[in-house]
Amino acid sequence: MIKCVKCGREYDHFFPPRCICGALLEIGYDYSSVDITKWKTRERGVWKYKELLPPVKKVISLKEGGTPLVRAKIGEKLGFAVFIKDETRNPTGSFRDRLATVGVSYGLSHANNGFIVASDGNAAASLAAYAARANKEAFVVVPKKVDRGKLIQMIAFGAKIIKYGDSVDECIEYASELSRLNGLYDITPENNIIGLEGQKTLAFELWEDINPTHVIIPTGSGSNLYSIYKGFKELLEVGAIEELPKLVAVQTENCSPIASEILGLTSKKDFTKALGLYVKDPVNKELATNAVKESGGTAVLVREEELDLGEKELAKEGVFAEYSSAVVIPALLKLHEEGYFEKDDKVALVVTGSGLKSYYAEEKERFSIGGTKLSILRLLRGRSMYGYELWENLEKPMKYQAVYQHIRELESLELIEEAYKRGRRTYYKLTEKGQRLLENFEG
Ligand SMILES: [Zn+2]
User: Fold this and answer.
1) Distance from C-alpha of 211 to C-alpha of 226, rounded to nearest angstrom
2) CA of 8 to the centre of ligand 1 (A)
3) Of 107, 178, 306, 322, which has the fewest beta carbons less than 10 angstroms from its beta carbon?
4) Which letter, b or e, does each residue of 172-208 get, where b requires 16 or more Cβ atoms within 10 Å of its Cβ?
5) Which residues fall inside 5 Å of ion ligand 1, going by CB?
């Protein structure tokens, strides 16, 4: 079905990202014959776009895709239109159901012994469900540290769980080896690009709903970012759009191989609480980086302390996201502060996975208060102060931006609130909750 453009080698049921000769492989279609007006009357979902999906004999579906695009309240404050693409509303609670429906449907006749995927959690939970639906065995290779909710899904759907390595990139090669040895159909996106075809349908939906100017995407392995890019590229090919929306890759400061490459910074490979973004050496780095650059977009780094803020802001919108998805909020705010957006922009935030899958009851007190935040609370005990004044009074030297960030987080934690405004200055005071917290600290 795909022929390598460089050496002519053909691939018919399994599509590695690169041909044996080294050339990149891409699944293409006869775009001139695609009539997108047919899409209008069809039911929402991944398979609505079948002209731009690989042909399958039988569709294994749980009605994935067609997820809601919710107008975000935060946009009213910021002065432009912001929308949340709520991928938590997929059958197993994440965008990976788009990958699994295409990977499993396509691989069905080649998966006599079952399917396999290497995953940090979401893709494994998805494969477990879709393989169950197809009466096939699912083998999932996951790192030692996996979100518990995702693990529970894998168990519930009867997957064979293999724990291997520290981060998901270490699982990828192992899954590939197991697939070869045991005749399993591997749908790991880094090993087989078939599933990206499912993931790209998210772009088609965004286009149908709002035709966004910007798409902000949490980025771990880069496979979702690349898929969304491919989706928009195909919309260009079929004449639906005239230019790509700007794609924004978001990673954490702790683990930032793709975002740092885009920004020209040195990247770190440390652990991040946003487990889905803990990919140290992403195979798709080059593809994802090029996709962002070609779209004219950018990248943003988010600090670990901002993950709670992101989760909480999304919760205010009525969307419960996992940390890995919550990064879209701090990213949006950072770009807004830099004056990146214009008032006619339509910004889509991709919320990839549900917080239910990653929430731990014993982590109830997730908001850490210490250091600078505590100092700010102490300063506000006596009297109201405005941002610049707080900054001047802090003993530790730090950038005003950082202090401003702390103020915003304290506000979102409802520990401080606006007391009054004088001119352009906003004065802050402690809330009752803030006073109580301070009393607890001071004893
Ligand atoms: Zn080749």
Assistant:
1) 18
2) 6
3) 178
4) bbbbbebbeeeebbbbbbbbbbbbbbbbbbbbbbbbb
5) 4, 6-7, 9, 19, 21, 23
Q: What is the pLDDT of residues 365-403, one digit of tens each?
A: 444 566 788 889 999 988 999 988 999 888 777 888 888
**Geometric angle at alpha carbon 65, from 62 and 68, rounded to 5°:** 125
CB atoms within 10 A of CB 43: 8
Residue 239 phi, psi dihedral angles, 5° rounding: 80, 15
Give the helix ranges, DSSP H, for 301-431: 306-316, 323-326, 328-337, 371-382, 387-393, 400-412
Query: Whose CA is closest to 337, among 300, 309, 312?
Result: 300
Structural domains of the chain sorted by starting position, each given as residue range(s) with its CATH number in brackets: 2-34+94-194 (3.40.50.1100), 69-91+196-361 (3.40.50.1100), 371-442 (1.10.10.10)
100-120 tens-digit pLDDT: 999 999 999 999 999 999 998
Least Cα distance to 40 among 186, 240, 189, 179 occurs for 240
C-alpha 26 to ligand 1 mean position (Å): 11
Distance (angstroms) between ligand 1 centre and the Cα of 257 equals: 27
